[in-house]
Amino acid sequence: MKVLIKNATILSPSTPFHGKNKHIFIDNGIISKIRSNLKIAADKTIDVKGLCVSVGWMDCFANFCDPGQEFKETLESGANAAAAGGFTEVMLVPNTQPVVYNKSQVEYLIQKAKSLPVMIHPIGAITKNGEGKELSEMFDMRDSGAIAFSDGFNPVQSSGVLQKALEYILAIDGIIIQLPDDTTIGTYGLMNEGEISTKLGLQGKPALSEELMIARDIELVRYTNSKIHFTGVSTQKSLELITAAKKEKLHVTCSVTPYHLFFCEDDLKEYDTNLKVNPPLRTKKDRDALLKGIKNGTIDFIASHHQPQDWDHKVCEFQYAKNGMETLESVFSAAGISGISTETFVKMQTENIRKIFNLPSPSIAEGEKANLSLFIPDKEFIFEEKHIFSKSKNNAFKGKKLKGKVIGIINGDRLFLSEDPTINK
């Protein structure tokens, strides 16, 4: 397929084209020409006012529910959701049925994903069946294509098991992803513990459950000299602990969800089950600290925490609803309305994330494989269900005014335009 992108501002600091308005011609997945003006025949021409192009964005924490829970999401629908959100690469958590904890399951995902518009990077489970008891065969999974290791939405509770895992991955220069949550504290909590939870009559989950685990895991990293990435960080104290660890030059990085940057516990007053998430939404003070952490570089990037749920598990009483929100299509726009600049977002989702997970960064240059995100940074719009490509619709941003519209992606010879569904067939 031949694709011509016209009048696009290129955001790619590592190239001489950064900040310049150019025409880009892509021939069978390869960037063939970058010029100030091109008149050339193409199968598809993209000419949109205000269009920007950057290296393809990457996400590190999404659940596509395949295998085992395809009624919530499939690899195909999840990939379409990611592409509609501007992502060309996505790391998948192992919380499927069965759990991805051996090389055959890693290979299944990689093989099945070859025809998708986005590149899939499996995350291998740290422990067998994700039960937190016995280490999985991480070396074999790494050889088969696992990019990192995590028990996903079920964080490792045992200090001894995590210590062994951190020591194990040293030999393969691996990295552990941990969602910090001591499940023995506030076990049955439904939202952040505080004044709002008391007023709403909902059992609370204290910030301590997150902060204790971060403090513990930092000590384990200090002891093992290994690497850990905390995802879903939600409190000011957590950021203070991570900042101190970074100053100490420990191998500690972190990411935050798009909904923790926009919502806070006050938004639960209507008992919106789409906002029932883990870690729970915290205070306004915590939210402001997260936004500050993005701007000062303490937070390395945004992780979608895309967790689709079926209708039955969200359209119910708050206490019975399952945690999680589908998010991929709204990450960029939610960041924009939260006051995060386009330049900061692009740097986080292209350079920072690939550096942490030891992946080469694509380039916008002639002769390079196309790996591009297409978007209009300043376009404001109401996010509606029609913008959701996931099988699940449990997105709390529906009905909200957001800023920054994704047009689609080009990944090799695959083109996905969210504004033109016919091109996706």
Question: Can you walk through the features of this model?
Answer:
By secondary structure, the chain is an alpha/beta fold. Helix content is 26%, strand content 23%. The chain has 2 domains: 2-53 and 365-424, Urease, subunit C, domain 1 (Roll); 57-356, TIM Barrel, CATH 3.20.20.140. It has helices at 75-84, 103-112, 138-144, 159-168, 195-200, 208-224, 236-247, 258-262, 284-296, 331-337, 342-356; strands at residues 2-11, 21-27, 30-35, 44-46, 52-55, 57-62, 87-92, 119-124, 148-149, 176-178, 191-192, 204-205, 227-230, 251-256, 301-302, 371-382, 401-411, 414-417. The strands form 4 sheets. Strands 1, 2, 3, 4, 5, 16, 17 and 18 form an 8-stranded mixed β-sheet that branches. A 4-stranded parallel β-sheet has the order 6-7-8-9. It has a 4-stranded parallel β-sheet with strand order 10-13-14-15.
Output the radius of gyration: 21 Å
> What fraction strand?
15-25%
Order of H and E elements? EEEEEEHEHEHEHEEHEHEHEHHEHHEEE
Number of domain units: 2
**End-to-end gap:** 13 Å
Classify the secondary structure makeup into a structural class.
Answer: alpha/beta
CATH superfamily of the largest domain: Metal-dependent hydrolases
The assigned CATH architecture of the largest domain is: Alpha-Beta Barrel
How does the overall form come out from the CA principal axes?
globular
The poorly predicted ranges are 421-425
CATH class bucket of the largest domain: Alpha Beta
Largest sheet: 8 strands, mixed
Number of strands: 18
